[in-house]
Each structure stands twice: as structure tokens, then as C-alpha cells.
Amino acid sequence: MEQSDCIVFEGSNMAECHPVAFRWPMKAKVEHGAKLIHVDPRFTRTSAMCDLYAPIRAGSDIAFLGGLINYVINNERWNSDSFFREYLLNYTNAATIIREDFQGTEDLDGVFSGLMKYEGGAPEWPYDGFIGTYQTDSWQYARHGEEFGQPRGGEENAAPGRRGAQRQIGPDEPLDAVIRSLRKPVPLRDETLRNPRCVFQLLKKHFSRYTPEMVANVTGCPAGTFTKVAETILENSGRDRTTSFAYAVAWTQHTNGPQVIGCCALLQLLLGNMGRPGGGIMALRGHASIQGSTDVPTLYHSIHGYMPALSALKDHETLRHYLATEGVATSYWANMPKFLVSYLKSMYGDAATPENQFGWDWHPKISGDHSHMPMFVAMADGRVKGMLCIGQNPATSLNAGLERKGMRQLDWLVVKDNFLIETATFWNRAPEVESGEVKPEDIKTEVFFFPSAQVAEIDGSFTNTQRMLQWHFKAADPPGQCRSDPWFTHQLALRLKRLYADSTLPRDQGFKNLVWDYDPDDPARESIPGEPDLKKVLREINGYYTGDKARHLAGFDELKDDGSTTCASWIYCGVYPAPDRNLAARREPDPPGVPGAELNWGWAWPANRRVLYNRASADLQGRPWSERKKWVWWDGKQWTGYDTPDFSLTKAPSAKGDPKGVGLDAFSGTQPFIMIPDGTGWLFNSSGLLDGPFPTHYEPAESPVRNALYKQQSSPVLKYWKHDGNPLASVGDPRFPYVITTYRLTEHYLSGVMSRWNPWLAELMPELFIELSPELAAEKGIRNTDWVRISSPRAHIRAKALVTRRMRPFRIGGKIVHQVGMPWHWGWEGVVTGDVTNTLTAMVGDPNVSIHEGKAFVCNVEKA
Amino acid sequence: MAEPMGFYTDTTVCIGCKACEVACKEWNQLPATDGGRHEMSGDSYDNTQRLDGIHWRHVKFVEQFSEDRNDGRWLMMSDVCKHCVQAPCLEVCPTGAIIRTEFDTVVIQSDACNGCRMCIAACPFGVIDINPASDTAQKCTLCYDRLQVGMEPACSQACPTDSIRFGTIRELKQQAESRLRQLHQLGESRARLYGADEKFLGGLNSFYLLVDEPEVYGLPRTPRVPTRNLLPSSLFSVAGAVVLAFLGVVGLRKHRMDERAIEREDADV
Q1: Is 0.90 exceeded by the ipTM?
Q2: Closest chain A residue by Cα to residue B46
Q3: Are A618 and A633 in contact (CB under 8 A)?
């Protein structure tokens, strides 16, 4: 971000929530005059630092971004500058022709072709939540030699009705042959971009409604401000300048969050800002290692390195069927057999052999959506026996009343945290217990509390939002019986291994064969008995040659699909290339004055690349687009530059792709997006997203207004978990007339476990509050610091009023819409306490990733 | 004496994160108001409200919005003791507890302070107050203990955007002037430096870059020694003087470091 000429913060309050990282935007601003723009419902600490602030109503981001897209493609300079044309035509799929039977939102008033009733899922797990689903056949590329293309499996995990392998696969078929068989004919293209079925023409049509007037009408942002934002971004994009976007959970926590991000990616591709220094889209992740937790992962729907989880709902019967369903013949993903087999060797060690498909049948499979919200709804239905709660505080989480109801149905609950948090005392101190509605003696849940070590008391690594691993060393031992999360996991695994040791049940064979050898070589030297050796964990993640753990793998190019390599996570392969070289522990900054990538500071996956798809930082001939934006280039023999090139090192820019080739052989020297099946940045998403190939503005699941753009009100495929404790307000419900958004403050962290117990932080923000405009306050007779009652269809809570002109009423579709905002850091435990904001939120989610919609819903506000 | 050291605070890059407040409290082990349990002020995001004996750093929040929101700014500024070159507190202190260090900073030695409150009345910026934990007057020491071992103050080290800069006054003034020129070129005509020259109190060793009138930030336009307040305050000092001898002796016994400081003060006198 330090190299950006313009930074747009949207869906993020970066100065507030990522204050340390915010030093880079400020450096860009102070040192080379970068323009900073904040697009947000509230004027926040971030807005205060920006050159331009554009107010928008919560939940209207796609309308705003769609407006920018429409503005850009109709802009004169964009249409005449050769840079934009060259980038668009070669580095994106703008020229690709889509199937004849595809219909978009202009044809179908807000939905895409293929919409159908959801009938998938496993009968024993009725918690997938889909209200509808798309059959995506018509979204595919039109290809030479076949009438219609077929969708690939990809990330369409756990979705209904996905096809599996299209043919018979022999049990001995070589794994690379399975991948080769997935080769498809080359897609049809129109280099003039005039064909009405080409992506660019479809895109133009799709966004034609998103005019500045429409943007103003839907978002509430004055048309003049919107135009100023668009002009500033355009001025700072091109051959010699780059613009970056930064977002956080205010883009993700919607019923169409991934589409908001996709919309930004589309815009950035149009502007030629991807794969270049100072460009890109920065996902500002919430915790110190939340990136690491999705890489490794703790996600239910993927295994290591973003391979889809094995699913009982898809054709994953054998290893080969999985590859035929999820694999792809072109792009670097063609190496999936190597990633997968090396992963299975890491799981099952010597027991994993070619004969037993490397232990395929032992691996657990998912049977539906097992993410946060469905798990708690299932819990409330009495379908879950026990829960281990580590670093989470669900008693204050989404629709918290319903989550606590779920916890009351558990037989047992383990809470491992720093303090007796709300989740540990939900049975005797929750509001429903205080009010007498629930009696502790009626709750059967047995609660076990494990005191936790703090971060400075643990060795390990963080993976930050830049995908960079940084090793850290503990500063002190934890007090008393406080223990680290690795200690807990390790000890639990060892005990479970003993418990299953004598089992002869087939279903237990996987757990019995699971390799678990992380005990330190010399336990007597450890200051905390029972801690695992984390270097051994890192070695397992990095990988080694099977049979010789001292021979670490230096990178994922060394992986094999025959079992001769063992590697838990292919993307992390190379972080620990030798027993004495932990690259995550490096701390060597670049010398001053060098536009470097700091390659010797920590280690970033993949292969220590700092900017992904960085071949796009050079033109078709491999020359930097400009001296100022030099990053990676072709030196006549190979790719070189400040960063690790993200391309086949010796593939010349003039190299032709092999139409029958597999993996990167299929790509020419001008296809930078090496993880994408056609090597281009996708403006149109044939697969990967369940809710449409183009981003489309839908209203949040709860909204005071009708969708001004289409008849379709909200996403036709959003997830909603129907339950007595989870009612939704209908559109424009007069009982809940105001838009509410929820957020964090610098002074507190998440549910407050790491801040509300600390007096120094508590005094800075001692009480829960609601931010509202003086206009709304006057209407409701509320004065600053008055107690206010806030209600949603789920619950009502109390907070103090903070009346401020930083909040404003919006004019939406000709009527005034008020918006309020609340931080959500409080609960009933800790030094400072307050009501739980999350009791107001609903369990509605996005179809791709099942995230909730905590950033835009409706409420009422009254003087208490 | 070492070269004069101090703070330059560029308020235009302050994000109001309060890391300085917390770092200060942590390093100096200052308590929180009511153990952290106090009421929210309703004054923007400012809940600690002022500098006092247990708040040696304080971040101010100033909301400036027109009714139609066409104009809007949210100013933030981390305030601290100004370490005046001609420090009124030092001049009025009857016990000699307030000293000028070798870094040209102003430090109250707790063990030589009798709690007479003279300095509180004398400070034109309202920086000093009694710390109830020690019952003595306290304020920012510019991390004298850290400076003595070559470390920078806790607050400036914690500042993520370099709004608070620490260094020699000479270098800080150069940085401030260059930033001021940049802002003027960008059309920010209201930008100005406060306390960077010798116009009042001989200059401030903690000076500021502001983008509005000083009063907007709660700073006096022309700070002066409030001599009118000196007479009533002096009554305290008469009583305080009686205690002084005893306290001074105890203090000398307790801390060798302070012993050195007092020797230096004697030399200055």
C-alpha cells in the first residue's frame, strides 16, 4: 500500500481496526501524496484521514462499485489509453464468448439463468440453509468443438446437485491421466470485443443501469461525490499509476459478501490494477493469524491449501473421482494430485499406500454446511452433544440468544480462554438467567474451563494478511496451569489416540492410522511439560521426502503424486527448507531507498511471492509498464525483478500455449493468472461462485427499502436458517424502520476478552453505545448519553446514546432513511460490562461461505 | 548537557488510536480511572477527557461538521506536557522537586514533591495534577528513565503512524517545517506550527502541527505564566515547606538516581 497512488477503503475502517498497518497508507499519503478515499456509512477515524469521504447506506456497496464500473467503461480516457485496452484484452477474459443460453439480470429482472429450487443436501443434516440454487451450465464458456462447456467442480463445495466424474475411471488409472482427461477445447474469443456474447459486452449490458443517479438513489451518496471518487480512481490508474482497495469484514458480512469483493476485483481488472505494485485488493483480516487459520485450515469446507473438503454429497467416492470432480487440467492446479497425495501421506504416513489410495477411505467427509450458524441451529434442535470452544465467545455471537439456547442443549462444553468469559458463565449469568426466564438447575450442560496461555507466552507463527508467516518466540512462561492451544490440541490427540488404540471398528481405522508425533525429542528440556515441538509441526506443514524427515522440501515444485513426498500444506511448502532454516524467522529488511519486496523478512506463501500474479506488472513483451511501476520483467532469458516472479521462470513472453497441454504448458507467455483455468483474470465467473457470474446489487435480507434496481429484492440464493428464535423483518416493516450496522473500536478487541478485562483499555471505552445522528435523536427525543432501547425482530438491548454529526440520514428513493451503528465488544463479564449487541443480529448468510449479515439489518430505537 | 530532545506531534496523521495513552500507562504503571469502570463522557471518542496525574498522554477528538455535512473534519491530537523551555511549573516549585534534565526536558521528582499544587496552578496548559496513588503532582517525564538508557519514549515508539515523533529539537523542527510547506502546497492554508519557535515560554520542547486555531484543540493562543494564581497557591507552599525537609531527606536515601539529579539542580542554581 505504501506504493499506491490512491487507496480506497471500502468495507473497512482501517485506521480504527488495523491501526498498526495503517502506517503504510499514511506513509503513501505523506511521502508521495497518495490520495486516500473512504466509502462508508459512518464518518470514522479512517474517514478523518482521507482526502475524500463518500457516505453510503450500509448494504449498498455493489451499487456503488457497479456505478464505478459503469463510469470507467464509459470514460473517454479509459477507452482511448492503449494500456487499458492491452491489459483488458490479454490479461482478462473480456474477449471470451459465453454460451448462447446464458441470460443475465437484464433479461430476467435481477436473476441469472439456471435458478432453481434447492433440493440437495443430506436428509440427516437439514441445515444447509439454501433458499434457492443455481444450475450453472449456461454460465460456461462457449468452446471450439463442443456445443456447450461444462462447469468444473472447483469451489462449488457442498452445493446441491453438483455433477461428479463424467466417465468411468479405472482404479489403476494414473493420477495425471485423470487430470489430463479433464482437458477442454479452447474457448471461443472475439478480439474485437464486439460480439454480444463476449464477456465485455455482457458486462457492459449488466452494469448499464448503474448510473451516477442510480448510485445516488440506492446508496444515498451524492452524485457529485460519487463522480469525484470515480475520477480520482481513474486519474490514479494506468501505465504509470496504481490504485489499491482495502476491505475487511464490512464487505464480507453480507448475504452476498464474496460478490462485493468480486465486484471490486472486476473493477481493478478493468483498471489494470491487479498483479502490480501499489495495486490489488487488500483483504484486511481480523486476527493476527486468521489468514493462517484459513490456510492450514480450520475451515470445515476445505482441507489444506484451499483444496475442497471431501464431501459425501459429491462424487468423491475414490481419490480419482475426487480429482475428476474437483480437478482442472489447465493452470497450476493441474498439480492437485501431488498436493493431495502428499497431504494424505502427512495424514496417514506409512499406512498410506498406492494400494489403499493413500488412505482415502479413512478421511472424514462433510455431509453439508457445518459452519458456525448451522451448527448452532442444530445445537438448538438438540442435535449436537458437545463443543470445544477455543478462542471463541459464542455467548455473545450472532443472534446470541439463539446461540445460548443451543449451548443449553449440550451435554458438555469445553471453554479454553484467558478469563471466565461469557461462554463459560452462560448458565448462571446470562440475561435470560438474570431475568428468571431460564433456571441454572434446568440446564444439563456440564462446563469445563481451561485457562489459556496468552500469545506472548507461546512460540509459533502468525500468517498475516499479506500471506506472510512470521515466527515468534515466547517472552515468558504462562502462569500456573495456563496452557497454550498447541498443548491442548496435542494432549487431546494423544489421549484420543490411546482411547482408540484397541478399536477394531472400520470407522476408527482412520484415527488409528493418523500420524501424531510431535513430542519434543528431549521433553526434559521443555519448561512446560507436555508442549509439542512446534518446529516438528512446521516441518509437517512444509513437507519432507518420505522416510527421511531431515530432508525438507524446498518448494512445491518438488512434490510428487507417488507417495515419495509428505507435505501437509502445499502452499506453505518452502517455508522451512532445511532443519536449520526457518525462513519465517527471518528479520532482514531491505536497505532504504530500494523499491524492494522485503523478500528476506519472514516468508510469504506461495514461494515467498509478495505480489500475486505479478507477471501482469509487465506488458505483453515482458517490459515493465513504466519505470515507476517496475516490479517483475523478462530480461531476455528469464523472468526477474524485485519480487519472486509468479510465472514459469523461463517461459518467454512470446511463447505460445499448447492447446493440448496440461498445467502451465497450456498457457502462453502472456497469461499471468496461473491459478485460473484459462490464465486470465475473470470479469465473468463461470464457476467458483454460487450466486452469479456478475456481481448484482441486492438489498440485505432485512431492509427498509425495495430494491430500486430489480424486481428481485435480495439474493435469490442466500442462506436463511428458519427457527423460532430467528425471525426476519419484512421489507419496510414499520416496527423496525432504521438501518443498523455493527463494528469494532480501536480500544476493544472482538467480544472484549482481550480488552474489557484490562483497566487501561476499559477506561478508554467503558460503556456500550449507539451512534446516531442529531436528526434522528431529535425525532426520537434522545439526548447525548441518554439510555436508549434498541430492538430488532430477535431481541432488544440497552445502550447509551452518542449523538454525532458523523452519522447522517440518507435520502434513498426519495425518502429519508436513518441509520445507526453499534460496536459489539460488550458482555456481562469483565471489568466493564454491557449488553450484547449481537443478540440483535439474524442468522442469514451468504451461499458461498455462510457468513452472516451483521453489517446491515434493521432495528428500532427509542429513549429508554 | 545533551542536545535538547522532545516531541513533534503532527496532528494531521493522528488516527486517535490512543496507543500512546496505553503505552504511557503501561511503562509508567499509572492506574486507570476507577479501575477502568467509569462512565462514557459522550464527548466524541474521548473518555479520559484531560491530562492529569494518572493521564500523562491524552488524545483529543474534535468533531467539526456543518449541519448539512458538506464540510466535515474529525480532528485528533495526542496531547502531553509541553516541556517548556521557560517552564512556569519549574519556576514556582517551592521544593525544587521539578528539574530540568540534561535533555532539556522538565521532570517532577515524586519523592521531593510535597503536593503543594503550585505547579498545577502555574501550568498554562493544565497538564499537571495530583496522582492519587502517590498524592504528589505528576505529569509526563518524557520517559526520562528510558532516555537515560538510550531508548525513545514509550508513546512515540507505540505511535503507528509517526504522528508523535521523538528526536532532537533541531531535527524535529526541520521535519515540521518541511511538512508544513507540503501542507501549504496542498492548499491546507490553516496548517500552522504551535510552540516550535520562541514566541512564548521560550519555545515548547513538545510542539505541534495543527490545522486550526489553537483554541480548537484546547490550547491557549498565547500561553503565559498565570501570576495571578500564584498568591493563593503560595499559601500551600508555606505549609508544604515544613514537610519538605523531611521528605527531601527520605527521598535522597531512597533513590541514588534522584540524588544525582538534585546535585545537578544545585549546580544549576
Answers
A1: yes
A2: A764
A3: yes
